[in-house]
Amino acid sequence: MATEQTLVLVKPDGVARGLTGAILARIEAKGYALVDLRLVEPDRARLEQHYAEHAGKPFYEPLLDFMMSGPSVAIRLAGNRVIEGFRSLAGTTDPTTAAPGTIRGDFGRDWGLAVQQNLVHGSDSPESAARELSIWFA
Ligand code: RTP
Ligand code: MG
């Protein structure tokens, strides 16, 4: 089976809280390969591309503001079925309900309505992964 690649982001809350290393440790323990990794402070144009599918939703503007609040760590990650596998490691979108054992379940705080502060992003399909990798690793 061909090795897949996905885009992982450690979002601004993860970087600011000093959780990048803990998150990377889980990724590496799972056996995924770090192909490329960089600290990025995305501008609005990059985020509009990245989150195009969410344009117009109620959480869109708060999400973009949050994503511009500090640097993120962008990771090109490779592995067998890594797209689905990383999303499984991350847990469900809302950290208040994400299962224990997942990144969001173990480290995500209860921020009330601030669901956007959920520590990580992972591409959700091969098409999304290709599109998002080209945005963050242009
Ligand atoms: P991600 O894209 O970050 O890996 O997370 P996801 O697939 O689980 O979530 P998605 O539906 O793609 O939403 C993207 C990000 O938008 C924020 N969000 N806020 N109701 C809300 O306030 C809400 N819903 C989504 C989260 O930061 C989510 O990760
Ligand atoms: Mg998503």
TrEMBL record:
<dbReference type="GO" id="GO:0006228">
    <property type="term" value="P:UTP biosynthetic process"/>
</dbReference>
<dbReference type="GO" id="GO:0004550">
    <property type="term" value="F:nucleoside diphosphate kinase activity"/>
</dbReference>
<keyword id="KW-0546">Nucleotide metabolism</keyword>
<dbReference type="Pfam" id="PF00334">
    <property type="entry name" value="NDK"/>
</dbReference>
<feature type="binding site">
    <location>
        <position position="93"/>
    </location>
    <ligand>
        <name>ATP</name>
    </ligand>
</feature>
<keyword id="KW-0067">ATP-binding</keyword>
<dbReference type="InterPro" id="IPR034907">
    <property type="entry name" value="NDK-like_dom"/>
</dbReference>
<protein>
    <recommendedName>
        <fullName>Nucleoside diphosphate kinase</fullName>
        <ecNumber>2.7.4.6</ecNumber>
    </recommendedName>
</protein>
<feature type="binding site">
    <location>
        <position position="118"/>
    </location>
    <ligand>
        <name>ATP</name>
    </ligand>
</feature>
<keyword id="KW-0460">Magnesium</keyword>
<keyword id="KW-0547">Nucleotide-binding</keyword>
<comment type="similarity">
    <text>Belongs to the NDK family.</text>
</comment>
<dbReference type="InterPro" id="IPR001564">
    <property type="entry name" value="Nucleoside_diP_kinase"/>
</dbReference>
<dbReference type="GO" id="GO:0006183">
    <property type="term" value="P:GTP biosynthetic process"/>
</dbReference>
<dbReference type="InterPro" id="IPR023005">
    <property type="entry name" value="Nucleoside_diP_kinase_AS"/>
</dbReference>
<dbReference type="GO" id="GO:0046872">
    <property type="term" value="F:metal ion binding"/>
</dbReference>
<dbReference type="GO" id="GO:0006241">
    <property type="term" value="P:CTP biosynthetic process"/>
</dbReference>
<feature type="binding site">
    <location>
        <position position="11"/>
    </location>
    <ligand>
        <name>ATP</name>
    </ligand>
</feature>
<keyword id="KW-0808">Transferase</keyword>
<dbReference type="InterPro" id="IPR036850">
    <property type="entry name" value="NDK-like_dom_sf"/>
</dbReference>
<feature type="binding site">
    <location>
        <position position="59"/>
    </location>
    <ligand>
        <name>ATP</name>
    </ligand>
</feature>
<keyword id="KW-0479">Metal-binding</keyword>
<keyword id="KW-0418">Kinase</keyword>
<feature type="binding site">
    <location>
        <position position="87"/>
    </location>
    <ligand>
        <name>ATP</name>
    </ligand>
</feature>
<feature type="domain" description="Nucleoside diphosphate kinase-like">
    <location>
        <begin position="3"/>
        <end position="138"/>
    </location>
</feature>
<feature type="binding site">
    <location>
        <position position="104"/>
    </location>
    <ligand>
        <name>ATP</name>
    </ligand>
</feature>
<dbReference type="GO" id="GO:0005524">
    <property type="term" value="F:ATP binding"/>
</dbReference>
<feature type="active site" description="Pros-phosphohistidine intermediate">
    <location>
        <position position="121"/>
    </location>
</feature>
